[in-house]
Amino acid sequence: MDENSLAPTLLLAMPQMQDPNFARTVVLLCRHEGEGAMGLVVNRPTETLASALAVLEPPPARDGGLRAWIGGPVEPQRGWLLLGYDPAPDQGITVGDGLYLCASIDVLRRLIESPDAEREHRFLLGYAGWGGGQLEAEMAASAWLTVEASKQLIFHTSPEDMWEAAIRSLGVDPYALQLGTGVH
After folding, report:
1. Count of the separate structural domains present in the chain
2. Entry pTM
3. Residue span of the structural domain in which 13 resides
4. Cross-strand partners of 93
5. What does the pLDDT look like over 34-52, one tens digit per residue?
6. I need a labelling partner for 58 at 20 to 30 A (CA). Which of 2, 20, 69, 153 fits?
7. pLDDT in tens, 56-74
């Protein structure tokens, strides 16, 4: 990881963000390097069950109700498992303290079949991506705030409250924020 990397951190869309893909989003920034950045939106659940999207052979023995979440607009057909625990040796990539990315079909099957569908894990579709310098330019234009990545916030705060809770954790009223550079 680049020494100037912001990852892992949470990016919080400023209230004035107009892009419907990112309005009021919380993005876990997983990688941030000179060539670009990659993150996952962590507060956009869907009503679609993972079992309806994943093609597993043989089919899962049961459906524990694991939902799919929108991870971002890039490659929405690509699935990611974000875990708040290490899935097993050589099956996950450490993103941050207690946060792992995994693409294992075996882990996905286990999560789909688990009766504890909303524990510390998410099945996310797509991701947020930025080309080299793009995220830095957006941050300079005051499009994003940053807050420390938190398992508690990601996995134990309701998705509809997560954005506001994350901003308030900075001691800021989200509705008092203004778009622009410099001091207001």
Report:
1. 1
2. 0.91
3. 9-176
4. 101
5. 999 999 999 999 999 999 9
6. 69
7. 999 888 999 999 999 999 9
